[in-house]
Every structure is written in structure tokens, then in C-alpha cells.
Amino acid sequence: MKRFKILIDILQHTGFMKFTLSFVSFLFMAGFGLLVLEPGILHYWDGLWFAFVTSTTVGYGDYQAVSFFGRLLCVLLTVYGMIFFAALSGVVINYYTELRQDKDNI
């Protein structure tokens, strides 16, 4: 729990929290979109799971998009997820680099 608090503090300090909230909001909306668009997804939580797995590029294979708009949504989820997680790692590394530089300058 302490590490989660540190991550939240980093996100707030760097201004990355808005991007994080937009990503999480998009995941929830995509979960609903997949429920509507995909015949194999029968429950919202299954759509949310599929959206999360797609955005992290894990792709377990328990669900797959078969409709055109479902596949298009999955492409958007994948691209948005790759951008988000790449930027997140960059923000955290940059935060600790600046922290170390400030410490060295003292």
C-alpha cells in the first residue's frame, strides 16, 4: 500500500494524474462499448476485463473481437495503452532522476 501511495504522489507531483484518469475512464467506457459491440461478451465486467487485457497488450485469448467496430476499439485500446504505459514509466524514471539530481546538488 505504501508503494501505491508513492506512485499516487508522483502522479500528482508531475501532473500525470489527468492522463491517468483519462486512461482509466477510457477503459471503463471501452468495457461498455465492447459489451454493446461484441456478441461474445455478455457481461460488463467481461468487457472491462477484455479492455484491460487489450490495453496492456497481454491478450490472454479468452475473448476476441469479431466485429469491425469491436476490432477498431481494440486497436485504439492497444495504442492508447502502449502510449500510457510508456509515458508512465518515463514519468516515474524522470521523477527519480530529478530527485537524485536535487540530492546531489545539495
From TrEMBL:
One of its GO terms (molecular function) is voltage-gated potassium channel activity. One of its GO terms (biological process) is action potential. Gene3D superfamilies: 1.10.287.70. It is found in: Membrane. This is Two pore domain potassium channel family protein. Residues 26-97 form the Potassium channel domain. It comes from the Bacteria. Keywords: Ion channel, Ion transport, Membrane, Transmembrane, Transmembrane helix, Transport. It is a multi-pass membrane protein. The chain crosses the membrane at residues 21-45, 65-96. The lineage of its organism: Bacteria, Bacillati, Bacillota, Bacilli, Lactobacillales. It comes from Streptococcus danieliae. One of its GO terms (cellular component) is voltage-gated potassium channel complex. InterPro entries: K_chnl_dom, VG_K_chnl. SUPFAM superfamilies: Voltage-gated potassium channels.
